[in-house]
Amino acid sequence: MLRMMVVRFFTSLLVILGSLVLVFCIVYLLPGDPAMTILDPASATPEMIAELRHQLGVDRPFHIQFASYVTQMLQGDFGKSLINSEPVLPKILQHFPATLALTLASSVISATIGVLLGVLSAIHRNKAIDIAARIVGLFGISMPTFWSGILLILIFSIYLGWFPAMGSDGWQTLVLPALTLGIVGAGFIVRMVRNSMLEVINEQFIVTLRAKGISEKLVMYRHALRNALIPALTMIGVLMGEMMAGTVVIETVFSRQGIGRVISDALMAKDLPVVQGVVFFSAIVYVCINWLVDVSYSSIDPRVRRAQ
């Protein structure tokens, strides 16, 4: 167990380093001049532009800029906003709890609905509940989040008045955004769990357990489900990262203050240090989530423990 955790940890560090290089290269190759984002193009003189470019360090060679960027990031300095000179990292940490709450709530909804419907769909194959579960899965996968979010606002906020349509204060404002993202994730998990359960049900050890006279419920929910959840656990870990990326749209639709809204506003204002900081911070969170998922395999699958 310890050896696997160490190996995964160093692998995760390599992924984070790769994301750091990728983020810097993408921003470096983008067209535009950061100095012109700060200065007024109508009144800026060539001398003012050159002086500001020197202060920002964008007039230096690529390798020097990259070395400086990596050094700053490793020291926890994500730079400053070009718009208001506000430090990027404190701004991210200020808005991250709202995004984290939305991601966790969406993941809980996805996992609960997806696993429940997936298991019922596999056990009652080709029956009414199976057809209904597959329709729910297809709806979740096919429906764009911005459209389903607007639809939920119309139904539960405008017509029924159950939940507020906008804001990020209190659990009531979290329900509709989390449900919007959760439905999407549930669609993928339903199909994954259903297919996994159908494969496990036909395994030889399930036939042996039934032959020993063990009750069908115990066979399904203790033995079959435990093995079927292994690929679903991977899917949940991946979906958490995708849900965090999906908050860019959801936080805009529901006017929530999170890092998705921060990067959306930064892209509109061409505030590149904020964009770099949010993308790199999100990459770190995504890698940490997948590291925890990998480590948790040993507690679910005994074959992983024996291999260690």
UniProtKB/TrEMBL annotation:
What is the recorded membrane topology of this protein?
Answer: Multi-pass membrane protein
The record ties this protein, via PROSITE patterns, to:
ABC_TM1 (PS50928)
Transmembrane spans: 7-30, 100-123, 135-162, 174-193, 228-254, 274-293
The protein's name in its UniProt record? Peptide/nickel transport system permease protein
Please spell out the taxonomic lineage of the organism that makes this protein: Bacteria, Bacillati, Bacillota, Bacilli, Bacillales
A Pfam family hit:
BPD_transp_1_N
Q: Does the keyword Ubl conjugation apply?
A: no
Domain ABC transmembrane type-1 spans what residues? 96-297
Q: Which family does it belong to?
A: Belongs to the binding-protein-dependent transport system permease family.
Which Gene3D superfamilies did the record assign?
A: MetI-like
Give the subcellular location.
Cell membrane
Per its UniProt entry, which superkingdom is the organism in? Answer: Bacteria
Q: What is the scientific name of the source organism?
A: Paenibacillus eucommiae
Q: Which CDD domains match?
A: TM_PBP2
Keywords attached to this Swiss-Prot or TrEMBL record, sorted alphabetically, are: Cell membrane, Membrane, Transmembrane, Transmembrane helix, Transport
